Amino acid sequence: MSDFELLSPDGGALSSPFDSVRGGAxxxxxxRGADPLLDGLNPPQARAVEARGPALLIVAGxxxxxxxxxxxxxxxxIRNKEAWPSQILAITFTNxxxxxxxxxxxxxxxxxxxxxxxxxFHSACVRILRREAERFGYVAGFTIYDSADSRALLKRIIKxxxxxxxxxxxxxxxxxxxxLKNELSDADTYxxxxxxxxxxxxxxxxxxxxxxxxxRRANAFDFDDLIGQTVHLFRSHPDVAAIYQRRxxxxxxxxxxxxxxxxxxLIRELTRSVDPDTADRLVxxxxxxxxxxxxxxxxxxLTVVGDSDQSIYAFRGADxxxxxxxxxxxxxxxxxxxxxxxxxxQNILSAANAVIGNNFDRQEKNLFTTEGDGEKITGFTGYSxxxxxxxxxxxxxxxxxxxxxYGDIAxxxxxxxxxxxxxELLIRSAIPYRVLGGTKFYERAEIKDAMAYLTSLxxxxxxxAWSRLLxxxxxxxxxxxxxxxxxxxxxQGISFHxxxxxxxxxGFGPKVRGAILGLGELLRAARMAAGGGxxxxxxxxxxxxxxxxxxxxxxxxTEMIEKLRAKRDPQDEARAENLEELVSVAREFDVRNPxxxxxxxxxxxxxxxxxxxxxxxSGTVSLMTLHTAKGLEFPAVFITGVEEGLLPHxxxxxxxxxxxxxRRLMYVGITRARKRLxxxxxxxxxxxxxxxxxxxxxFLQEIPDSLIDWRQTPGEVTSRGGTESRALNAPRGEGxxxxxSSRSSGRPESSVVFGRGGGSGAAAVAxxxxxxxxxxxxxxxxxxxxAKEAQAAGGGxxxxxxxxxxxxxxLELAPGDRIRHEDYGEGRVTGITGEGSKRVAHTVFxxxxxxxxxxxxxxxxxxx
DNA sequence: CTTATGAGTCTTTTT
DNA sequence: GACTCATAAG
Length: 864
What we know:
Residues 346-631 form the UvrD-like helicase C-terminal domain. The protein is of the alpha/beta class.
C-alpha cells in the first residue's frame, strides 16, 4: 500500500513537497514570468509540454528533441501541482531510455521526482504481475522465460507430440505462438477459428495448449505473456484494473509507432475510466476530487510520442495503425508535430528525407535544421567484407586522430553475422570496441547454466532451469534419471527440489542417488541462504542475502569455475572469466539495489535489452544492428553492408510492406548520425560459407549524388584486393581534402553526370568525379558478370584475403624493424606499446602512413 | 553416461 | 562456416 501514500493528499499538504524544489534546470530563481521548463523550446515543443486534455499525439521526427519534451512535460505537470509523481507512468522502449528519462526528470525536479513509474512495457507489467500474481493462479516468484527457454520447452513438447514430422520446429512454432500472443489470442481462441480438417492446425493447437499448460505448471511467463497476461488480468478483474486506472493519471508512451496490439490494449485498459460501482469499492476509499459528477473516476490522460517513419518492428507485431489512427482511437486528441531537427547536419537530413520520401504510404514530413550543410556523406565500396571492414577501421582511426573519441563512433549493420569481419579488423587495429546485443552475455551457455541455479532457487517448479542445472557440471545424472525424477515430481505434486531430496524412494543406483541427493542438499542450503521460503525457522528470513553471495556459494560448491579451468580448451578460460564476471555483476546489483533479492535480480537480467549495455563512459566504438540503434545518436556513424539482399534484406523483399520497412530501417540508421555519416558496402560477401556477389542497395540510388563523396564507387572496385586497392582509394584529381564543402549551390556538376546514365559506352568513369552512381552501377554490373564467370570457371577469386585466425604471439618486434602487412605493404615500426598478447606495433607504412596494429593478430611478417 | 565424430540446418531484425 | 543434433564408441 505504501505506493499509494501520495495518492490522495489532503489539500493542505499538496503544495508542501514542492516548495523546496526550485529552478532545477534554469536557475531563474522563482521568477513567475518565464517558465524555465519552456525556456529554449521552439513553439511546437512548448505546445507539447503545455497541452492538456485527454490525449496528445506528439509526432516527433528523428532528433527533434522528444525526450526533452517528454521530460519537460512530466516536470511541468508536477511543478504545476497538476499531478503527483506517483500518478505518472512513462513507458519507454529500453531500460536505458527509461533510466535516462528518470535522470533527466530528476535533474529538473530533484527529489520531487521520486515515486514515478518510468520503465519499459515489460518491466511495468512484471511489476504489476508480481504484485497480483496470486489472483490468477501464479506465484509472485514466477520465472520469466526468454526466447531460448521458450524454445527449450517447445522442443520438448514437439518431441512428445511427435509433431516434428509435420514440420514443426521450436523456432517456427515459437514465432507463431508469439505472433498470436501479440494479438492477444490464446490456444482456445485460436482453436475456435482453426481449420479442424487440417491436421497441421490440429497439432498446432495441441502444441499451443500444452505449451500454455506447461508454462502455468512451471509458474513461468514468456516475454509475450508479460504484456498479454496483464491485459487479461485487467479485463477479468476490473477491481484490480481499477487500482491502476485510479492511480495513474498521466500515461506517457514513447516510440508509440512500435507498439503491438497487446501493448496497445494495455494502454487502452490503463486509460479507461473506473465506473462508479467499482470506484465505490476501492480501498482506500476514493475522495470526492477524484471522481466526476457521476461518481466515476475519469480515464487517465494519455500522451504518446512517435514517428511512423521509424516503425521498424512490424516483425514482432508492431502495428503502425496504432499511431496512424490515434486521433480516431482517442477522440479529442491533439496532435503536435516536431520537425525541427537538432541532431544532424543538413546533408545528413537531406539524405534521410530523400530515402524516406520513397515510401508512398506516409504522411509528408520533412526534417530541417538550421545547423548548416556540414560535411558530405562518405561512400565506400570494398571488394570484400574484409576490405569494407578495413576501410571502417582505418576511417575510425582517422577520426580518432582528428580528435573524436571512440565512444562517439558507432558502426551499424543489418544482421548480427556481419560483426565477425568488423571485429576482426578492429581487434587487429587495436581499436577498442564493444558489440551491443548479438550473443549477449546472458545468452552464453555458462552464464545460463549458473543463472539456472538461481532461477531454480526462486522457482523450484521451473523444469527448464532445473533440467539445465542437473547436467552442469557433469555429475552422472543423465536423461534417464532426469525423466524418472520428473515423473516422480509430477506424481507427488511436489517441487523438483523436494523430489530430489526423496531420491531414495525412486530406486536409483547408489552412484546416481548420491549425486541427486547431494545436489538436492546444495539447493536446499542455497535456498535457505537466499532467504527463500524453504526454511522452517521464521527467524532466518529477514533481510535477503546478497545475490552475489548466493551465487558464490553455488559456484564454489559445484566447482564450476575450477572444472572449466581444468579443461584444455582455451575457450574454457574465457568461460571461467565470464562466470567471475557474473559474480561481479551480481555484486554491483547488490550495491545498486540494497534490500532487493534474488527475484529482482532475475527480473532485471531477464529484461535487459541490447541498447541497455551501452555505457557512455566506456570510450569504445559501438557496434550494433540498425534495430538496436533506434533512439541513439552518435557524432559519427558507419552504416555497413548497404547492399541488395542485406539492406534491404532478402527475406523482406517478398513480404508485403517489407521494402518499406527496410527503408525505414535505413532512415533510422541515417538519422542517428550527427556530423559524419559513412555508407559502406562490399561487392562480394560471404554467406553460408561461400562467396556471393552483392549489388549496391537501391537505397543508395535514392540519395542525391551530390550528397555523397564516393571514395570508391561500386564501379571502381577492383577484383584485386590487398595492397593495390589502396592506389584506387588514393585521392584523385583535385583531391578530396581541399574542396570538400561543396556549397549548397554547387550541386549541378555532379547531377549532370548522374543524368548521363544509360549508355554503357559512357565509359570514362575513371575521371576525377567519382560520384556517379548510375555509370558506376553499369560498370559494376559488368564486373559482377565477370566475377561470376571467373567463379564458375572454378578459378575463384584472386587475392582473397584469408580470414584464418593467425597468431603471431611469438613475433618479436622492436622500433626500427621493417614489416610487411597483407593489406598495407611494407612499413617501419616506430614503437611498441602494451604487454603480452595486447602488444601494439605503431608502424609507418610506405603507402598508407601511420597505423596501429595488434601484433598478435595482424597479418604481418618481419622483413629482414 | 560421457565424449567424439559427422551430417544437417541455418541467418533477418528483439523485448 | 558455425552451430546443433543424432549416432556410435569409450
